[in-house]
Amino acid sequence: MQKFRIVNFDAVAAAVAELCGKAACDLPEDVLDRLRQMETQEISDLGRDFFVQYFENARIARNERMALCQDTGFAVFFVELGDCIRFDRGTIYDAISEGVACGYRKYFLRKSIVNDPLFDRKNTTDNTPPVIHLELVPGDKLHITLAPKGGGAENMSAIRMLKPSDGRNGVIDFALETLRNAGGNPCPPTVVGMGIGGTFEKAAFLSKKALLRKLGEPNPDPRYAELEQEILEKINATNIGPQGLGGSITSLAVHIEFFPCHIASLPVAINLNCHAARHAEVEI
């Protein structure tokens, strides 16, 4: 008989509340490392000055427990839930929502969510509901990753249903077009998440999940790793630069995730993060 592990609802909510504060205030080490690496390649004096400010902002946020950016984002979660887990009450959705409401109040994070996208647009006052991507996995562990998404970068996302005949060059052209159209709006240097394949919605999901990879770590498939590097080099040759004011570093990394697709389709989605690529995770 299968044994189930009982997980405490309040413990999950409390862990999520702490994730909200950590993600908002602590720039991950992989992001800082990549910023240091790319700073050495920036040829613009103004661009290098921006990098100095990025590091100082990260230091103040970490030490003073202040948000890295006033836009503390939509709370987006990627959750791996073990199939041997049961909750003592409620659901994982309820626990995460309660944790977000608590965390955004506790850490004085801006509440940015409206209850209706088109008509009422009244603030929900606690930054709920979150977006939760849930995956059921074997075992009795619960892994939660929070990746807050601010409006400036999120608004520059794009998806295109390419024809299979568009191929590799079509993917590259779409990426460059998207970054040129974005300009300084997503607070470059950006992290570029790309989802290739699947369906319309699967490609969009993959593009956001791609942003969770350790910054600058190449795709394990050498073909896609080569494509990531080529797109990054072409983006950085656009001279958009830090904050869109010119320079050699427009993006810190391009991350691609891919999935099988229909013989008649080639979906490509692009999701951008600003230079403050926020994320935090916990295992329970």
Brief descriptors of the model:
284 residues, alpha/beta, Dihydrodipicolinate Reductase, domain 2, 2 domains, globular
Fold and architecture overview:
The protein has 284 residues and is an alpha/beta fold. The chain folds into two domains: 5-23 and 69-148, Dihydrodipicolinate Reductase, domain 2, CATH 3.30.360; 151-276. The protein is built from eight helices and ten strands. The protein has helices at 9-25, 29-39, 45-64, 92-106, 151-154, 167-182, 200-209, 222-236; strands spanning 5-7, 76-82, 85-87, 131-137, 142-146, 158-162, 190-198, 251-261, 266-273, 280-283. The strands form three sheets. It has a four-stranded mixed beta sheet, with helices on one face. α1 packs across α4 and α2 runs antiparallel to α3 (45-64). The protein is globular, with a radius of gyration of 19 Å. The two termini are 23 Å apart. The mean pLDDT is 97.
Compose a concise summary of this entry:
By secondary structure, the protein is of the alpha/beta class. The chain has helices at about 10-25, 30-40, 45-65, 90-105, 150-155, 165-180, 200-210, 220-235, and strands at about 5, 75-80, 85, 130-135, 140-145, 160, 190-200, 250-260, 265-275, 280-284.
